[in-house]
Amino acid sequence: MDQYGRRLTYLRLSVTDRCNLRCIYCAPQQAFSWMPHDEVLRYEEILTIAQVLGKMGLRKIRLTGGEPLVRYGILDLARDLAQLPGIREVCMTTNGVLLADLAPELYAAGVRHINISLDTLDPALFATITGRNLFGQVWNGILSALDQGFDPIKINAVIMKGINDHEIERLAELSTRYAIQIRFIEFMPVGSDSNWSEDRLVTCEEIMQRIESGLGTLTKQDSGPDSGPAAIYSLDGAPGTLGFISPLSNHFCASCNRIRLTADGRLRLCLFSDHEIDVKKVLRRGISPKELGSFFRRAVHMKPKGHQALENGHLGCRRTMSSIGG
Ligand code: SAM
User: Does residue 156's CB lie within 6 angstroms of at least one atom of ligand 1?
Assistant: First the structure.
């Protein structure tokens, strides 16, 4: 628990900074190098951290990246994490490129809840946004996840004015055909390379208006235990739902239950703050599980009350989303 009484039950764990896509709002756009392997948290280090946190009240771990499915040993890691005492759920956010092949094994490893990122249904625009011509592969990944029985399946779409905002209705319409949740996420100023500017921001309110005028009335649904910060709505008669995540226009800091661990083992207490605590360093120096528990207890005390993205000329944070994990 942090000093404001928020229970931190949810860890977003970036298992690699490597990715098979180069999304214009997420990954570095200039020439860059991946983190050296030795800098990345090792399998055993991740398990040690999760074991300690599981005993302290952590309940949910989301595997993210970079692209989590490109990390060597990810299926074993998911399975081992899911078996730790205290951990009730291991889920994943993926770009879906490798999902068509890996869905059965991922399911067998114990992952049930999967978020797949997809910002457009237009293959050419997909290639422009992600730098790779792989729309068909991602779409097959989504169909495989449905076949396999993952539940819930959520599609994450980041909406950027002038880039993919004309796709809002088409994306929303997917919820009338499939039992999935399409989640619209406000474009966030994360990473010095994100190409973010205020005039690219489309607020969730605008997105909802567009959907209502194109596709009909949105009816509010109970958010339920695993909707997180999303406000959930549905279109009449649709098997799926729509989620709206508005970290900028209507932030949810007061109920934030998240901590983040970057691929190089730094604890981030707020997505928008570059303040990081080096967990890998203390682990590699040698620390007992009990001491690691005390270290985390002291660390989470520093979680800020709210984020300051966009305040006082402060523009999000410098580290790219691809190395934080979203
Ligand atoms: N590679 C995986 C994927 O594509 O889902 C996991 C990592 S990715 C960083 C996690 C999520 O962050 C994705 O849904 C992505 O769309 C979202 N994201 C990245 N940069 C963002 C930004 N600037 N604003 C809003 N969402 C962003």
Answer: yes
Give the residue extent of every domain in the chain: 10-324
Q: Which CATH class is domain 10-324?
A: alpha beta
Instruction: Put the strands of the sheet holding 241-245 in their side by side order.
Output: 218-220, 231-235, 241-245, 181-186, 153-159, 114-117, 89-94, 60-64, 10-14, 258-261, 266-268, 276-278
pLDDT tens by residue, 289-308: 999 999 999 999 889 998 87
Return the top range by mean pLDDT from 178-187, 270-279, 299-308, 313-322.
178-187
Q: What share of the chain is helix, strand, coil (3-state, %, to 5)?
A: 35, 20, 45
Contact status, residue 317 vs residue 190, Cβ threshold 8 Å: yes
User: Does residue 152 have a cis bond before it (omega within 30 degrees)?
Assistant: yes
Asked if 262 and 323 count as a contact pair (C-beta separation under 8 A), the reply is: yes
CA torsion angle for 225, 294, 269, 73 (degrees, to 10)?
-70
Rounded distance between C-alpha atoms, residue 151 and residue 115, angstroms: 10
Residue type, 31: A
User: Which residues share a beta bridge with 198?
Assistant: none
Mutate to test the pocket of ligand 1, among 13, 29, 93, 315 (most ligand atoms within 8 A of CB): 93
94 lines ligand 1 (CB under 6 A): yes
CA distance 138 to 111: 18
- Per-residue pLDDT at 58: 97
Judge if pTM exceeds 0.85: yes
Residue of the nearest CA to atom 11 in ligand 1?
Answer: 326
pLDDT digits (tens, 9 = 90+) for 81-128: 999 999 999 999 999 999 999 999 999 999 999 999 999 999 999 999
Residue 312 CA: distances (Å) to CA of 145, 253, 307, 315: 43, 18, 12, 9
Is 158 near ligand 1, meaning CB less than 6 Å away?
A: yes
